[in-house]
Amino acid sequence: MPRLMGQMMQMPLMISSLLVHAARHNGDVEIVSKRVEGDLHRYTYRDAELRSRKLAQALARLGCEEGDRVGTLAWNGYRHFEIYYGTSGSGLVCHTVNPRLFPEQIAWIINDAQDRVLCFDLTFLPLIEKLAPHLQSVKHFVLMTDRAHMPAQSPLDLKCYDELVEAEDGRYEWPEFDENTASSICYTSGTTGNPKGAVYSHRSTLLHAFASAMPDAMECSSRDVILPVVPMFHVNAWGLPYSVPLVGAKLVMPGPHLDGKSLYELFESEKVTFSAGVPTVWLGLINHVKQNQLKFSTFRRTVIGGSACPPAMIRTLEDDFGVQVLHAWGMTELSPLGTLSKLKAKHFDLPKEAQRRLLEKQGKVIYGIDMQIVGDDEQPLPWDGQAAGNLVVRGHWVIDRYYRRDDSPLQDGWFPTGDVATIDADGFMQITDRSKDVIKSGGEWISSIDLENIAMAHPAVHEAAAIACRHAKWDERPLLVVVKKPGQELSKQDILGFYEGKIAKWQIPDDVVFVDEIPHTATGKIQKLKLRERFADHVLPT
Ligand code: ADP
């Protein structure tokens, strides 16, 4: 018997369709951007769609052909948003480069991706002028500004972004092509070895946008005002530049102004309801709001992820400011969203503390992703909330292989995340560590995240990191590295005493060192490797 086929339209999932939809159905909804130039820029989805079409024309005029990579070094703003659509929408590939990486790494990444055009904000002009001689593939350097802000002199043959766009007539139709075509590239931050590129497709990006906007995920709607603090160069701002136009919400972008005061003012003036960012940016915002005894008038929900969100931060945001925290886990290789913590209906009757413990976990997978934990023998471990194993995932927006690499990173069809996690019977996943960061004491594992979360709940602690320190008898024992809050008194005994009763005695750190600053990666994660190097010769008390 011949198989009966579905008889529905075949429309490829095109990134351009998100913006076309927003322009047609929410055409008057605003996109507001704090510019590098210092002022606030506002226009609508209708304007953004037209300018993105003009940009597609301009890039073609510069000689870009299907599949060519266009690099960006830019903050969150409307021009960057136009580049997302003008490139992917016209069959080019948007390559967002993280400007916080070391200059040599930035050059390496641009060369590896073979970017043909490089678009960058004024902030990065000095950096690009220095790097330009090393960027072999780049044919055009485009400064993302208007004529008035173009420098009088530059060693580069600079093109002015606004002039390029404004020279076009916009008579351009978004093409339709295979939905599996590459749409954008992000590189992992390469804490070990050279960064690796993850190449997303139109299909994977659209499915991620649908799934991440759902009520059990980020719960985005046209009634929201959404401000992604997470940069557009950090895994596509967690997909928000796609899911926000999908739902037609007002989009607010902070540019380079990420300090607590600037963010707070933007949240208030634009009536932001929903945001997303890594824990370190929330530290700055919370401090500002607390110090000045301010309140949020409209801000109700935020996604926090990228590294473990300390429970103390979740409590402060919820109890003091009425902001619901959605703790999420993801990675570059997952576009990035994998899991997000939200209660199930059956949890509504649980006591508040039990609910909180669930919401502190990294949460349940969203439809489209599948996960399991496996032992070192690659055999699945039970979902009992106790057994900790290597977290592996598969799904519609998980990478199959890295850019320009033939070898597959997969194990039996699953992508090994490098994270160690538990999963409970309800499917709530909790990351206990990066596999490289676990502290192995006498054959038992101690979760560095658990140790950090407890320390972070101490009122005098600004930031804490737990690392493994060599130990003659136990192989490794935990050392806690602490940054105090300014003006606070805090002794080693205070901290160690704070662990009593919160964790098994043998898991309490052996020692505490106080430092002025804990090093972070370009994506805001604690650089454990650097800390381990710095304290390699630390002698633990006996
Ligand atoms: P990088 O390029 O540094 O890998 P990613 O953003 O892709 O940047 O980092 C992914 C990693 O970040 C995850 O594998 C995990 O270790 C960590 N991570 C992300 N979100 C969380 C979270 N909510 N809790 C704990 N770790 C997290």
How are the SSEs placed, and which strands pair?
Elements: H1 16-25, E1 30-34, E2 40-44, H2 45-61, E3 69-73, H3 78-88, E4 93-96, H4 103-113, E5 115-120, H5 125-131, E6 140-143, E7 158-160, H6 161-166, E8 182-187, E9 197-201, H7 202-213, E10 225-228, H8 235-238, H9 240-247, E11 250-253, H10 260-269, E12 274-277, H11 279-291, E13 301-304, H12 311-321, E14 324-330, E15 337-340, H13 352-359, E16 364-365, E17 369-374, E18 389-395, E19 415-423, E20 429-434, E21 439-441, E22 444-446, H14 448-456, E23 461-471, E24 475-484, H15 492-499, E25 511-514, H16 528-534
Parallel strand pairs: 1-11, 3-4, 3-5, 4-8, 5-6, 6-7, 10-11, 10-12, 12-13, 13-14, 24-25
Antiparallel strand pairs: 1-2, 8-9, 14-15, 15-16, 17-18, 18-19, 19-20, 21-22, 23-24
This protein binds adenosine-5'-diphosphate.
